[in-house]
């Protein structure tokens, strides 16, 4: 995809920036976060292909900004869970700040890939990959056939492959 015309995004920015910041501020309760996500919204538009005609530019901007908000909240929850798990580790075994940031980035990337899976496929994939269950065990636990589990795993593997190798 070719990047959007900066003139088109510039026009959207001029016409709707203050509106999107106000909407995000109401949703987030924080002006600085609202400004950050509004900025990320327009950067995302600059890097993507805008539809040729935006009939409802505010609805489009709201969708992009809402997805960025969800990513923001998911990353916050992930960071909190990671910090909670680090609190259980003895101080001498704590990772460096650089390692913490690298781990958070990796976890965020994995989370984004997994978010692209349907809930059932994600559950099957995690039972297999994290819990080490066999396909028959997953099928029994979820009340599915082994064939359904196999198809879900194939879908998950294809999705993961596409996310990693076909960006």
Keywords:
mainly alpha; 2 domains; Arc Repressor Mutant, subunit A; 167 residues; 7 helices
What does this structure look like?
The chain has helices at 6-28, 31-47, 57-87, 97-115, 119-129, 135-142, 146-165. It is an all-alpha fold and 167 residues long. It has 2 domains: 1-112, no CATH class; 116-167, Arc Repressor Mutant, subunit A. Helix 1 (6-28) runs antiparallel to helix 2 (31-47) and helix 5 packs across helix 7. The radius of gyration is 20 Å and the shape is globular. The chain starts with 5 loop residues before the first helix and ends with a helix. 11% of the residues are buried. The mean pLDDT is 89. GO terms for molecular function: DNA binding; sigma factor activity.
* Overall tally of domains: 2
What's the Cα radius of gyration?
Answer: 20 Å
> What is the count of β-strands?
0
Approximate strand percentage: under 5%
Terminal residue distance:
11 Å
Number of helices: 7
Largest sheet: none
Average pLDDT confidence is 89
Helix percentage: over 70%
Order of helices and strands: HHHHHHH
Overall geometry = globular
GO molecular function, one term: sigma factor activity
Domain RNA polymerase sigma factor 70 region 4 type: 108-160
GO biological process, one term: DNA-templated transcription initiation
Domain RNA polymerase sigma-70 region: 12-77
